[in-house]
Amino acid sequence: MSDIDLQRRNFLKTSVGAAAVAIAPGVLLFDMAHGNPQALSGKVRWGMLIDTAQCKPGCNDCVTACNTENGLSGETKSTDSQWIRKIEIKDISSGRELSLPMMCQHCENPPCVDVCPTTASFKRADGIVLVDKHRCIGCRYCMMACPYKARSFVHEPLSDQNPDVPRGKGTVESCTLCVHRIDQGGQPACAEACANKAILFGDLNNPESEIAQKVRTVATTQVRADLRLNPGVRYQGL
After folding, report:
1. Which end is more exposed in the chain, N or C (fewer Cβ atoms within 10 Å of the end residue's Cβ)?
2. Separation of alpha carbons 145 and 149, rounded Å
3. Are the CB atoms for 154 and 170 separated by under 8 Å?
4. Closest Cα to residue 124, out of 174, 171, 179, 83?
5. Got the DSSP string for 9-25?
């Protein structure tokens, strides 16, 4: 066992258990790190609707924005973190081709949370699925459980990090929906950067929100709907 693993296990024994009693799940890392965000509520469910007709092949604005915002290298080696990636799909029968962004789907029933032995993977009351770096021991069970291949493992030491986006060697990470922006009333960097307005962000539970109205009026698809995970990311025209 490495020194890093031993330090994490000792920290879990002495600190996290006591902290979890006093602090609600999800508050320990992200709420305290961001000052005093609005109180979390189960009445809100943040999500995205991605219009594949507006997502243009060769455009990587969302990927670039994510990398810049969260301090990712932008490299695509197996050891580099990718929180959002563009995938190209083709219908063999019709020849129709689509380009679409794929990231953590922020499931209502996230399998990554189910398999995590330390509760490092958790879902906030507002539907955002996150990883608490204080609790992650790098076992990578969540990476194996995720059907979207949305999680990455940090292999190397990190530098020049965004202080609002805590990362660390030996831990697992994935798209956070730019929770640090949301908690301050903003939107994810990918949605803001998309010149084609292919990414619509908002509250799926608010019937008056643009995204909720759109989901009610157009046909949308959940990737791997057969798994009944109820993702917070939906696709139009898929």
Report:
1. N
2. 9
3. yes
4. 179
5. HHHIIIIIHHHHHHS-T
Provide the domain count of the chain: 1
Q: The domain containing residue 72 runs over which residues?
A: 3-236
Find the CATH number of the domain harbouring 50: 3.30.70.20
Confidence (pLDDT) at 97: 85
Amino acid 6 reads L
Beta strand pairing call for 199-203 and 46-51? antiparallel
Instruction: Decide if 86 contacts 101 (C-beta within 8 A).
Output: yes
Q: Which pLDDT score is estimated for 31?
A: 46
Asked if 50 and 233 touch (Cβ cutoff 8 Å), the reply is yes
Would you give per-residue pLDDT tens digits along the chain (238 residues)? 555 555 554 544 444 443 333 334 444 444 434 444 456 778 999 999 999 999 988 899 999 999 999 999 888 887 889 999 999 888 888 888 888 999 999 999 999 999 999 999 999 999 999 999 999 999 999 999 999 999 999 999 988 888 899 899 999 999 999 999 999 999 999 999 999 999 999 999 999 999 999 999 999 999 999 999 999 999 999 8
Give CA–CA dist 232/113, Å, rounded. Answer: 15
- Do the Cβ atoms of 71 and 160 come closer than 8 Å? yes
Q: Cβ distance 146 to 153 under 8 Å?
A: no
Residue given tokens 């069970």 in the structure block: 141
- What's the DSSP call for residue 27? I
51 beta partners: 236
The SS3 assignment for 220 reads strand
